[in-house]
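Contributing new complexes? Match this layout with magnesium ion.
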Amino acid sequence: MKITAIETIPYSIPYLKPLRFASGEVRSAEHVLVQVHTDEGLVGVADAPPRPFTYGETQQSVIGVIEKIFAPQLTGLDVFAREQVHARLHRTVGNPAAKSAVDMALWDIAGQALSQPVTQLLGGYTDRMRVSHMLGFDAPERMAEEAERIRDTYGITTFKVKVGRRPITLDLDVCRALRETLGDEAELYVDGNRGWTASESAVALRALEPVGITLAEELCPADDVLGRRWLVRQSTVPFVADESATTPAEVTRSLLDGAATAISVKTARTGFTQSQRVLFQCEGMGAEVVMGNQIDGQLGTVCTVAFGAAYAAASRRAGELSNFLDMSDDLLTEPVTIADGTLAVRDLPGLGVAIDSDKLTRYRQDR
Ligand code: MUC
Ligand code: MG
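Output block (do not edit by hand):
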């Protein structure tokens, strides 16, 4: 079965409230829907969320690189010739969200062709993941209120708290308020998106010991090489590399350099094929992983849970699967639901999703 065309559709869906964090903020999901067409009539779909503050991509760059470079290089290739597809994608540096959407759409086609859910093709370990909810910057009482509402509505008890503001007491007060409101049974961890220096991070980690956190992510820049290594060595919880370890090579460097002891796997930036490489590499090197969220909509979330639930190591920790709750609407005909703190994989061929054409008409920006 051959690839015949790759379609890119920019769309914009407003957020109910902005998500703020140390490296930026998101007010609307300005993503690109990617559809790969084949000569047998099957169409694979995936989402590309451009994150300029993390990878430098924009909607226009995603569309441009797919239309100008990837589509001409991939048209005519067999859908199952994944190594050839990736050899061609890798002739271009960067552009992780664009490459990942193409990769995941091809897996969607493979699953449809074989009448198997993608999660089964990947590994088929379990049928659901526990969900971790990400809390963006706000005042302590508002973040505590949101956490309580999310816990009471969806049964979620794991929260990733965005930190990295100055003075650091702003975020320490938030973490203390969350522990006070949620009690000991809640799992809390922090993500600084490189907002602090290594020494500020060290002060914060010590102050958070009585609060009890389970992971610390990108508190300071990995480019502050010695400071970061010094910080990671004194952390009493796994230290997660997210935006500093976006390729298999960066993951290796990060772990060997002592810049991290755990890795965030995001299907939005490594698709399924490269996420497999990252995951297997982490397993081989004895590093834990957490399934991260690239501020995904529902389609991206379906991809994250399909990958995470496919493997024991990827589903051990709660996955970051709930950012779509902040959006005012979405594109899928069958919405993603979270119940009892978990999100189930779709037991349907491929990714098991269909795009609502009325909604796409409403939100697309190219017509
Ligand atoms: C996260 O885990 O950092 C914010 C920036 C980004 O690249 O992803 C989000 C969430
Ligand atoms: Mg992060």
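Reviewers usually confirm one structural detail per submission. For this one: Residues 191, 193, 217-218, 242, 264, 292 surround magnesium ion (ligand 2) (CB under 6 Å).
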